[in-house]
Specification:
The chain is of the alpha+beta class. The protein has 2 domains: about 180 residues, Structural Genomics Hypothetical 15.5 Kd Protein In mrcA-pckA Intergenic Region, Chain A; about 40 residues, no CATH class. The protein contains 7 helices and 8 strands; from the N terminus they run αββαβββαβββαααα. Strands 5-4-3-6-7-1-2-8 form an 8-stranded mixed sheet, covered by helices on one side. Strand 6 and strand 7 form a beta hairpin. The termini are far apart.
Length: about 260
């Protein structure tokens, strides 16, 4: 006997589908700092035609980092993507000082090229000295994203990003312990407090609106950085974000409220 329940079609949430729709203009990515506890994370909506070089700029703005150091992307299959032939900046020195010979040019590959399955992961390593390793995971793709199809947006996040050159995750948490229990007679403790910007540094602080302002502000700079000729600024809309892309005063939605978890 068939019941009314049996006739109801099974509705599978879009984020649980195994394949991403390559025709969708926006990919949603989880970004987190590996070994951070509590987890430092961001959820980003990024145009699918952004290259890895573009994604590097988005990550720098979202954490935020200062883009002072070298970086690379790594896939689970062992492919490595580096800032090859970039004009200006510290990354221009990467090959010159002996970067990985097997590294591919990050400016030649888009998110659409590399992410073809949901929950697919990639690593982003920033600062080869401190070795800040970030995880990236594709969460879903969005079809109805025309208003911000050319503009990256941070949808949610938690915890402040560490200051530059703070010694990796181990060094960062050691410095936070100094802030919590400073010894006024210890010279190194005083140096740490100054390095961290004072005892008022709040590791739990996260300002979503400020991150999105940072993303908008970096757009014109990103457009001038990647002078590759692959596509014009007028075609991609990267000459500057249009007004009123998204109402950042509205909450990002219930499904982001419980994203602050350790396991990724």
């Amino acid at each position: 006997m068939t019941t009314a329940t049996d006739k109801t079609p099974l509705r599978i949430p879009r984020r649980l589908k195994r394949k991403v729709d390559a025709a969708h203009p926006v990919y949603e990515l989880d970004l987190w700092l590996v070994d951070s506890d509590p987890l430092i994370w961001r959820t980003l909506a990024v145009p699918a035609d952004f290259t890895l070089l573009d994604l590097h700029c988005v990550i720098q703005a979202a954490m935020p980092w200062g883009d002072y150091h070298l970086h690379e992307f790594q896939t689970a299959e062992g492919r490595r993507f580096e800032p090859v032939q970039q004009v200006g900046g510290v990354d221009a020195m990467w090959k010159w000082i002996g970067g990985d010979e097997d590294g591919e040019d990050e400016s030649r590959f888009t998110l659409r090229d590399l992410f073809d399955e949901l929950r697919q992961k990639m690593a982003y390593i920033y600062d080869m000295g401190d070795d800040w390793t970030h995880g990236l995971k594709l969460i879903t793709s969005h079809a109805d994203a025309a208003p911000f199809a050319h503009i990256p947006v941070c949808l949610a996040g938690a915890m402040a990003g560490p200051p530059e050159d703070s010694g990796g995750t181990w060094g960062y948490y050691e410095k936070l312990e100094v802030l919590r229990h400073p010894d006024p007679d210890d010279e190194w403790h005083q140096q740490v407090i100054e390095w961290m910007g004072g005892r008022d540094f709040d590791p739990a602080a996260f300002d979503l609106a400020a991150v999105n302002r940072h993303l908008k502000a970096m757009m014109p700079r990103k457009a001038t950085r990647r002078e590759r000729g692959a596509r014009s600024r007028s075609a991609t809309g990267l000459a500057g974000p249009p007004a009123n892309i998204i109402d950042l005063s509205k909450p990002p939605g219930r499904r982001y409220a419980k994203r602050n978890r350790k396991s990724r």
